[in-house]
Amino acid sequence: MRLGTRKMDEVVYLLVYHVIFIMFVWAYWQTIFTKPMNPLKEFQLSHSDKELLEREDRGESQQEILRRIAKDLPIYTRTNSGAIRFCDRCQLLKPDRCHHCSVCDKCILKMDHHCPWVNNCVGFSNYKFFMLFLAYSLLYCLFITTTDLQYFIKFWTKGLPDTQAKFHILFLFFSASMFSISLASLFIYHCWLVCKNRSTLEAVRAPVFRHGTDKNGFSLGFTKNFLQVFGDEAKYWPVPIFSSLGDGCSFPTCLVNLDPEQPSSPSGSSSASKSAGEGRQFPSKPLRESQSRLLTSTPSWSENEGAGDKDKKGKIMICCFPIVL
Ligand SMILES: [Zn+2]
Ligand SMILES: [Zn+2]
């Protein structure tokens, strides 16, 4: 009878181990091999604009040209000095949250960081995969640590047969527990970033808007922040399949800050209903399809927008002006 129960335990252990292992390898694979997304064509300078920009040598006149081009784009962030964010290397206007990666030598949408562990840039296209990679690798290490614990104790109480294999138990326990600690700290930090809707770069340096820096500029509240990364279909949350919302080029920003960390709202208004109306800080710009997909149920890679999306947008986007239609 006891032998039967032990056999059952072993089968369960093996099954759970392999499920976690497969999910871990899948998420790791996706993080490594998903190409980082670059800004859309409309952010690139046209041939004539390039020539115009080259002809001007004064910074102020160049900014004038860039400001004119930026007028038609959903760009709300600025440099520290208030200038339009422009990438010399890629010759494009940087969309909000986009940064130039010096390792990849490209502008990466919603760049988080360049990760040497995956030899890839972590950004809009693979941030969900990176989160799942952290989650499953942590789960994997914790599973090994806990199942190895009883043998680790037996090692010290001389309960193990005296063979070389007992040192494997020791090594396995130490390596799995050490990785668990470092992965847990990184995973908790990134969970916090997801909750706050910040990238690692934005956590180091808050984005600059026209009204000044605002570390919570992209935060929409916990639930919407989570949905922005993981998508609005719960069945895809634990699976390393792309389901993040938006196109990576434009992001809704809240005028009224509901975050208790920042009591003063940039627009000076105090209620959410007010912010959707007259309290606007920026001029409202007409948005194209690709820029107004964020937080709708349409998959973000697809160029088609469902007919029923408009209602949904209206509901979700209270207090987030760029997407309110
Ligand atoms: Zn660039
Ligand atoms: Zn990179």
Automatic annotation (TrEMBL):
Protein name per its UniProtKB record: Palmitoyltransferase
Family: Belongs to the DHHC palmitoyltransferase family.
Occurrences of domain Palmitoyltransferase DHHC (ranges): 84-204
InterPro entries: Palmitoyltrfase_DHHC, PFA4/ZDH16/20/ERF2-like
Top-tier EC class: transferase
Skewed-composition ranges (Polar residues): 292-303
Biased composition regions of type Low complexity, renumbered to the chain: 264-276
Substrates-to-products reaction catalysed: L-cysteinyl-[protein] + hexadecanoyl-CoA = S-hexadecanoyl-L-cysteinyl-[protein] + CoA
Species whose genome carries this gene: Characodon lateralis
Domain of life per record: Eukaryota
Pfam families listed in its UniProt record: DHHC
Compartment(s): Membrane
Disordered as annotated region, ranges: 260-311
TM regions (residue ranges): 12-29, 127-146, 167-189
EC number from the UniProt entry: 2.3.1.225
PROSITE patterns xrefs: DHHC
Membrane topology term: Multi-pass membrane protein
Assigned keywords, A-Z: Acyltransferase, Membrane, Transferase, Transmembrane, Transmembrane helix
Entry domain remark: The DHHC domain is required for palmitoyltransferase activity.
